[in-house]
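Figure caption, in words: inputs first, then the predicted bound structure.
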Amino acid sequence: MHEQPADWHGVPPPTPDADLDISRWREYADIITDSLWLLGARDRSGPHSAEYHGNFVPQIPNQIVRRFTTRGETVLDLFSGMGTTLIECRRLGRHSLGVELNPVVATRSRELAAQAGDLHTVRAGVLAGDSSSAEVALEVRETLLRHGDGYADCVLLHPPYHDIIRFSPDPRDLSNCTSHPEFLEAFRRVVRNARDLLRPGRHLALVIGDRYAGGEWVPLGFECMQVCREEGLVLKAINVKDMQGNERGKGKANNLWRYRALKSGTYVFRHEYVMVFHNAG
Ligand SMILES: C[S@@+](CC[C@H](N)C(=O)[O-])C[C@H]1O[C@@H](n2cnc3c(N)ncnc32)[C@H](O)[C@@H]1O
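Bound structure (S-adenosylmethionine present):
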């Protein structure tokens, strides 16, 4: 069922160099330390594109990877989609491993990540499978063991915001969960896998937004945050990111949403969350 990582060169990781040298903190003006993230337009350079509805802007993994890892370390993304994290990792000299349920998307993401590979010799692998399963957790562990001690140095999670975008007809797809509790339970299984695969002492970032259901604001972000905390992860930040770079809210659609919001006493989503957790181990 699972495809082997296509672009896994077996190159030993270089000795980590402390990319973020705190004694030179004044030089890192572009690393965000405020909780309001105004990232602006999507970075479309290189293989990055907006062709996949639901991908995040590359600036998100760029910020997380540069802040919380060093060169030669390994980043795991359990909802890797079109490979935004993998592309960014290759550019930044970090090894990466993604898991994506849709095998067609997984294959395309491998191709895109490979296109970003000429700057650094780093591995970028994608497994096609269900991140909430024990089987995939084992496969990830085995892959990480082939190149190290079985742990990732940083984990990113960008799950479907329940059914806002249906990514596939696969019943294991979190966007197909038939109820809110079912979604949270499936997400919890992914978080457990993520926590167990993340090296103690390192960081996990959750990128998530809220939704409306039946005219009521559903605080999906905070509920997923709570799942992470219940599973033992320590909350370090709730960053609010503006959605201007996500290609939503243009032209006529923008007017329609504003009209509907005014009529129904609701608000148009213009933000999502980048929550950061520490794995105290
Ligand atoms: C919000 S998108 C992530 C997009 C990604 N950050 C990017 O930039 O391309 C969520 C992804 O999770 C995938 N997905 C849904 N359920 C999954 C599951 N159980 N295991 C692994 N991937 C899943 C979907 O196919 C979709 O590509």
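The pocket of S-adenosylmethionine is lined by residues 52, 54-56, 79, 81-82, 84, 99-102, 105, 130-132, 158-160, 167-168, 172-175 (CB under 6 Å).
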